[in-house]
Design brief:
28 helices; globular; TPR-like_helical_dom_sf; TPR_rpt
């Protein structure tokens, strides 16, 4: 047999073998492949491998678009993945589940939780009522309904649901806790304390929540000794529970017991050195004390030791930007975005970095994308406003400052002043006056707010008010020449050069 004859003979044989191998590797029938993908997804979900689980459950849905449990488990995987776009997709998947099977209770419960967390209380109420129409004794639905009523401050309705629910379900820790919270909101301290203690007695596994709830109740009642005692009892009962240590550290911080708070935060770090959580809390403790160098050292320690230090890298980068260490920040920002190109926090940080380096167009691009991915980040709106202002886009800058203030009213010392300055720049004097006076109502001794107010009134030719604010600014910041120059211009306008402050 010649080489050419042999070649022509072997070619179809080889093809047949390859096809058999490929078919053999394809996993059999569609039903078998679907079952295998679903089982793989379940195992990955149990192992907290959420991204891999998402792929498997997507394969399930591709094979059967109406596979109810495929959609439900895909939602769970997205919830586990935890980023904002993931949560949105999880919500959509849960809606798909109940469109296919309206009384899929676990999906309805999850949707109810989403509605509570997003303060969409009417939808939470409707979800609970829908379940209770068919299952009038469903405790989880009753808890959801009572929580919705409590959120709407309809406390008597919440109480009417939970009191019989507790009697019918005396072993439910959640029911006792919610009833305790309702009594606490009604300022019925005796009933609240009793309900929390019943939750603790019911909780045979010595879980944290009942004792934590009781401790928080004591703090609200200003019974600080009882609160500390309760937290220490919880720690003694569950010494390995890090949540108790966190609550105890936060208690010491709120009581201004700084040394004990610091030691307890260090205990959290020591108890779980491979978890970034403790490092984040300890570093934030130092930031609150304005000990930024110590915070930086803690972030570095955590980045070296934590298994997943992405949160630490983000906080470290922000701290470095805040302290004008831009080149150091750049390294961490690059690492964040190498891990995920569309990380909203990473884009926000890179936008800040571009802004610090006067690369305004790139700053705007990154900050716009960050806001698109995570529109609740008030800092991203604030810095996007600054970038627009630097680019001369005053209207867009004003909109971003308003968005920042809407999301975080307490940042009025930055965004509020920036908004007032933008309005002044746009010659919208009356709105500028309103905004700066809001800031001054909270921070009457803030030099920058007094100087800005002086300039706003100066531009409106309100000499008396302008004079008062220039006068106050020069007292607060006598070394700052801007106050004296402004006052001088004002006196020149009044033709009264010699009038003393």
């Amino acid at each position: 047999m010649t080489r050419s004859t042999m070649s022509s003979y072997m070619h179809p044989v080889i093809l047949t073998v390859i096809m058999i191998l490929l078919l053999g590797c394809s996993g059999g029938s569609p039903e078998e492949k679907l079952s295998q993908h679903f089982q793989n997804g379940e195992q990955l979900l149990k192992s907290d491998k959420y991204r891999e689980a998402i792929i498997e459950f997507k394969n399930v849905i591709q094979l059967d678009p109406e596979h109810v449990e495929g959609h439900y488990n895909l939602a769970l995987a997205y919830i586990g993945a935890g980023k904002l776009p993931d949560i949105r997709t999880a919500f959509q998947e849960l809606q798909k589940v109940i469109s296919l099977k309206p009384y899929h209770l676990e999906a309805q419960y999850k949707l109810g939780e989403f509605y509570i967390q997003s303060r969409n209380l009417d939808k939470a109420q409707k979800t609970a009522e829908f379940i209770l129409e068919k299952y009038p004794d469903d405790l989880t639905a009753k808890i959801l309904l009572a929580t919705a009523y409590a959120g709407k401050e309809e406390l008597s309705k919440a109480q009417e649901i939970m009191e019989p629910a507790v009697k019918d379900n005396p072993d439910s820790v959640k029911a006792h806790l919610l009833l305790g919270n309702i009594y606490s909101l009604q300022e019925d301290a005796v009933s609240a304390e009793k309900a929390y203690n019943e939750a603790i007695a019911t909780n045979k596994n010595e879980e944290l929540n009942p004792r934590l709830a009781l401790a928080k109740f004591y703090i609200r009642q200003e019974q600080f000794d009882e609160a500390e005692k309760t937290l220490k009892e919880a720690l003694e009962a569950s010494p390995d529970d890090k949540q108790i240590l966190i609550a105890l550290a936060d208690f010491y911080l709120s009581a201004n017991r700084q040394e004990e708070a610091e030691k307890t935060y260090e205990s959290i770090v020591s108890a779980e050195p491979d978890n970034e959580r403790g490092y984040l809390m300890l570093a934030r403790f130092y930031v609150r004390k304005d000990e930024k160098q110590k915070a930086e050292e803690v972030y570095k320690r955590g980045i070296e030791k934590a298994t997943k230090p992405i949160g630490l890298k983000k906080m470290m980068a922000e701290l470095l930007l805040d302290t004008q260490k831009d080149d150091e920040a750049a390294g961490y920002i690059n690492e964040i975005l190498q891990e995920e190109k569309q990380d909203a926090d990473g884009l926000y940080l890179r936008g800040r970095l571009h802004l610090a380096k006067k690369d305004v167009s790139e700053a705007i691009n990154d900050l716009k994308e960050s806001v698109k991915l995570a529109d609740k980040n008030h800092n991203a709106h604030y810095y996007l406003g600054l970038a627009y202002q630097s680019n001369g886009e005053l209207k867009a800058a004003t909109e971003e400052m308003r968005a920042a203030l809407y999301l975080s009213p307490n940042m009025d010392d930055r965004a509020g002043l920036a908004l007032a300055a933008l309005l002044l720049q746009s010659r919208d004097y009356v709105p500028a006056e309103v905004e700066v006076e809001k800031v001054l109502a909270r921070y009457p001794e803030y030099p920058g707010a007094n100087l800005l107010a002086a300039n706003i009134y100066f531009e409106q030719e309100n000499v008396e008010q302008a004079n008062a604010y220039f006068k106050k600014f020069t007292k607060l910041s006598p070394e700052d020449s801007r106050g004296w120059i402004g006052w001088g211009e004002l006196q020149s306008q009044r033709k009264n050069f010699m009038k003393p402050l």
